[in-house]
Amino acid sequence: MSNKIKGAFTVRFIRTGDQIYVTKNIVKFDKNGAESGGSLFQAIDPTSGTLSVDWKTDIYNQPALKIGIKSAVGNPVTITSIKWTYRGTELTFNTSAATTGNYTGWQLSTDGKFAKKEVDGFCYLRLIDNAASTTVISNQIIGYEISYISNNVRDSIGGTEDVLIQQAGADSYSINITTSCSTLNATQTSTTLTATYLYGVKPISDTEFAASWKLEWYKDFTIIAGQNGKTLNVTRDDVDGSSVFSVKLLHKEGDNWVVKAVDAQRVTDDADEWTIDAEPDGTNPDAISKTSNAKFVLKLKQNGTAYTGSVTWGWEVYNALNAKTATSTGANVTLTAEMAKCVPDASNPDKNYYSDVAVEVSAEIA
Q: Could you tell me the pTM of the whole model?
């Protein structure tokens, strides 16, 4: 069985292919407006309606979903608009931001439950009312669709984020993993998972926990030795493309440790992928002219690390008219003026011209 990886690059002044990706964090704000890690999680007693945290009154624990977008090759990305949805319904907001009160600088939603703002290339959606209630006791979904422009290309990208709601009876134990970021990439290289454990809707005190409780952390359902604290730091090295991290809450009963609750969180590495790099060979130009060729060396990488195994390379060259002008194999790519020639009218050579070429590359590994 073999795997094939494909890539493409354009040659003129070296304009390589790009990938736009989303960065997501959960934050909260102190009284000075400074950000820190937040949590899109509420526990509720469905009988009494008691909450683990009341977002409507405890404004400094109100969570906000912070969204940004980046270019994999560092091109500037400008967000032109964003559409927010909640439970599948598009949110509408006041046209002007608040000028007084707790939400100065934020645009409030017309239903009074959310606030949004766009600052320094990031978009925030803040929950200013409770997600959980006696009638809403299951997870809810925030949706977003971002329109942007990058490298003179306009496009949009979207996604979702869960608001976690946990039912907690007055005489029950629960545990929940929260994290400000569940997606890693070349920029966001690590995240911290935090375990919140409750009796009913109230946290178990540190004193009580130390006396008769402990945690066990697992990766893909295999115990992680030596990890029994409230937090677990996860880096890209810990994630195999997409990995499930779980935590067990155990209570000491006699000589035995009894599991009382379990929760899990999936962490994904968006940059955990195969990529093809086309690097100038160092002795020849990296752009084509009528008198000189451009030469590149192809390299295969996974997570930024060069692949040292056997690779079968294939590549095709297309001119600006999208006509194939060359097909070849091997890791060394030579691009000539003839490959860049465009012939719009075969009967009239005076109309011929030269322009950029696009190189489509495939790498096959055993």
A: 0.59
Tokens of 43: 């526990």
Q: What is the DSSP string of 333-363?
A: EEE-HHHHEE-S-TT-GGG-EE--EEEEEEE
Q: Which of 13, 38, 349, 358 has its CA nearest to residue 180?
A: 38
Radius of gyration of the chain (CA): 27
Mean pLDDT by groups of 10 residues along the chain of 366 residues: 55 49 89 88 85 93 92 82 93 94 94 95 96 88 91 83 79 80 82 88 87 91 90 89 84 88 80 74 79 88 78 87 88 91 82 78 83
pLDDT, residue 54, reads: 94
Which residue reads 């990305």 in tokens?
77
Nearest by Cα to 41 from 124, 140, 123, 110: 140
Count other C-beta atoms under 10 Å from residue 195's C-beta. 20
pLDDT of residue 264: 79
Q: Quick check: 279 and 361 in contact, CB under 8 A?
A: no
Q: Which residues contact 291 (CB under 8 A, 6 or more apart)?
A: 337
**Mode of pairing for the β-strands spanning 89-90 and 153-167:** unpaired
**Token pair for 55:** 């977002």
Model pLDDT, residue 73: 67
> Residue 207: enclosing H or E segment and its boundaries?
helix 206-212
The HSE-up count of residue 68 (CA atoms within 13 Å, CB side) is 17
How far is Cα 161 from Cα 41, in angstroms, rounded to an integer?
Answer: 12
**3 φ/ψ angles, rounded to the nearest 5 degrees:** -120, 140
pLDDT (0 to 100) of residue 1: 41
> Are the C-beta atoms of 49 and 133 separated by less than 8 Å?
yes
CB 323 within 8 A of CB 340: no
